[in-house]
Amino acid sequence: MNSNPLRELILNKNGFNSSLRSGVENLSSELTLSELKQSYLTVLHQLVLLGLWRSGFFEKAAFYGGTALSLVHLLDRFSEDLDFSLLATEKDFSIDYYLEGVRREMIAWGIEPEIIVPDKKSSGIKTAFIKTMTLTSLKSIGIEYNKLQNIHRNEKSSVKIEIDTLPPIGFQSEFKYLLNPIPFSIRVMKLQDLYAGKMHALIGRKWKSRIKGRDWYDFIWFQKHSIKLNIKHLEAKLKKSMHLNENSELTLSELKQMLKDRIESIDFEQAKTDVVSFVKDPRQIENWSQELFMDIAEMIMVV
Fold this sequence. Notes:
By secondary structure, this protein is an alpha+beta fold. It has two domains: 1-189, no CATH class; 190-303, no CATH class. The chain has eleven helices and seven strands. It has helices at residues 6-11, 33-54, 66-73, 96-108, 134-141, 191-204, 213-224, 231-240, 252-264, 268-275, 290-297, and strands spanning 61-64, 82-86, 114-116, 125-133, 156-164, 173-178, 184-189. The strands form two sheets. It has a five-stranded mixed sheet with strand order 1-2-5-4-3. A two-stranded antiparallel ribbon has the order 6-7. Strand 6 (173-178) and strand 7 form a beta hairpin. Helix 2 packs across helix 4 (96-108) and helix 9 (252-264) packs antiparallel against helix 11 (290-297). It is globular.
């Protein structure tokens, strides 16, 4: 059997953030193909974070977003992208050095990445894509799984990285340890600021034809855990995205009204369709409605 420790992380079925937990009681025969791919992507997330840590990235940046909630705070849903914010504005920030660290780290663990950096001029967001050949990588790690035959040989798994190089003010961060594939620490925004970021997405995200039900699932998670929202950080983000006048001061009552206005425009059946493949227990979303979210909006607390 292949001794690559990533094999056990991928095959450990204990939820979509399975590689955070110990034990390999449930192996590949019990994983669906979708779960196997999501577990593999979670391991890719951890390898990218490990490579960034070795490169000193977290001396100047903090992790935030849904994947930060999933990996650090055990949010019970799968998340796709890795989002970061610099601690201070750096217009000429270059991602290249850190991506080279990610490349070296992944190769050391037996995975050959393809790294693509789109040319985005005059944008405060630095973007990169870390792609791997799914079938080749799973086989090299030692996955022996009958459903691998359903993965096309040219299929790629992709991790998107976004870094805000012109961050809004007012957030705090802390260092947290991840235990896999080895113990290492990352800088992550505090929960009150993670909540502010999620609220900004709820209010300001341009969904086009696809509503992000994942944002609404995370909203419930914050409220279930009685997390207070950093309203000053949210205010700064709303001003940056021009959802709030530069001279305005955001109050709790105004925040609740802005959210309720957004809730009134949401088709929650579409939102459920978006999130269902990302959650472990679909029963958690079966009663979603405008009435539910209007009620939850009244529960918001701020600091």
